[in-house]
């Protein structure tokens, strides 16, 4: 029997699609949803399923930013072939994304037993939601929002890319929340911070999904739930990306901060009363 049914896959795919790029923690929301549905959150098959359906969300980014990605990859290719093209910002940005992915890959491989074990607890999720909210609020207040996407540097990419480690180790902190907060502290404006978060997430999340594929297929999740969850994740994530870029152009991140605190407090309450198992 599959560890996750097709119906559950639809729900989890929708949750993943809505939350992957919003700074509210997709991992945290997936674990909460799995717990409420009686799914064992630390089951290797379930962990693998969660990673694989992220590929649907990443596919949404690839489609949404297709022209930008083609432009950046083309500039990278031209730069590899022609030294004169290497001054172009897009060429350098492509290398920055590659370099900025190395820290999270190294930590992900080294800390895999912890990530899939003790750190997978819903207690950790609840605490990380609240702590991450404080970081996000502070970053939004501290940032001067004066630098655009064309003003990003190698230092920006490395610091923002490395901040993904927080979300990797502490589910509930939020990968997008960590990256956006770091970018805001570096004085990028909200749109630049959001777009940089998207681009830096592509290799990290795609790699995680492909790496976990063998576990998802080999330990109790069938092909049908995987396919359904991934497709639903793609459709919902595409809509979420479009909405988020419009939202951050005119609003602060305060709504997300309040939402995260409410969810974190409610989760602590459910765990403390035994209504939800960690």
Task: Tally the beta strands.
Answer: 0
Per DSSP, the total helix count is 13
Cα shape: globular
How many structural domains in the coordinates? 1
Main pleated-sheet profile:
none
Report the β-strand fraction as a percent range.
Answer: under 5%
What is the CA–CA distance across the termini? Answer: 23 Å
Helix percentage range: over 70%
Poorly predicted spans:
none
Radius of gyration: 18 Å
Structural class: mainly alpha
From N to C, what is the helix and strand string?
HHHHHHHHHHHHH
Mean pLDDT: 89
Give descriptors for this structure.
278 residues, mainly alpha, 13 helices, 76% helix, globular
Would you give an account of this structure?
By secondary structure, this protein is mainly α. It has one domain (6-272). 76% of the residues lie in helices and 0% in strands. The protein has helices spanning 6-19, 26-36, 44-64, 66-81, 89-110, 112-116, 122-142, 154-162, 164-169, 175-185, 190-218, 223-248, 254-272. Helix 1 (6-19) packs across helix 3, helix 3 (44-64) crosses helix 12 and helix 11 packs antiparallel against helix 12. It is globular, with a radius of gyration of 18 Å.
Topology:
Elements: H1 6-19, H2 26-36, H3 44-64, H4 66-81, H5 89-110, H6 112-116, H7 122-142, H8 154-162, H9 164-169, H10 175-185, H11 190-218, H12 223-248, H13 254-272
Helix pairs in contact: 1-2, 1-3, 1-12, 2-7, 3-11, 3-12, 4-5, 5-8, 5-11, 7-10, 7-13, 8-10, 10-11, 11-12
Précis, in short:
The chain has 278 residues and is mostly helical.
């Amino acid at each position: 029997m599959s560890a996750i049914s097709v119906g559950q896959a639809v729900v989890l795919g929708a949750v993943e699609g809505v939350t992957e790029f919003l700074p509210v923690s997709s991992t945290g929301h997936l674990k909460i949803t799995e717990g409420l549905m009686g799914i064992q959150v630390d089951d290797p098959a379930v962990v693998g399923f969660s990673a694989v359906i992220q590929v649907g969300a990443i596919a949404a980014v690839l489609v949404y930013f297709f022209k930008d990605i083609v432009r950046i990859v083309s500039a990278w290719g031209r730069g590899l072939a022609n030294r004169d093209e290497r001054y172009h910002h897009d060429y350098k940005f492509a290398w920055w994304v590659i370099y900025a992915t190395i820290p999270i890959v190294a930590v992900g491989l080294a800390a895999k037993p912890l990530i899939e074990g003790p750190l997978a607890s819903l207690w950790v999720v609840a605490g990380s939601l609240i702590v991450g909210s404080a970081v996000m609020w502070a970053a939004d207040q501290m940032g001067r929002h004066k630098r655009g996407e064309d003003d990003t540097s190698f230092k920006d990419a490395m610091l923002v890319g490395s901040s993904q480690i927080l979300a990797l180790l502490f589910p509930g902190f939020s990968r997008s929340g960590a990256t956006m907060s770091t970018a805001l502290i570096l004085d990028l404006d909200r749109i630049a911070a959001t777009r940089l978060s998207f681009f830096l997430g592509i290799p990290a999340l795609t790699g995680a999904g492909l790496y976990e594929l063998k576990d998802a297929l080999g330990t109790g999740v069938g092909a049908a739930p995987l396919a359904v969850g991934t497709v639903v994740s793609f459709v919902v994530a595409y809509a979420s990306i479009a909405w988020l870029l419009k939202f951050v152009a005119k609003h602060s991140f305060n709504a997300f901060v309040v939402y995260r605190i409410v969810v974190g407090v409610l989760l602590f309450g459910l765990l403390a009363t035994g209504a939800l198992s960690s």
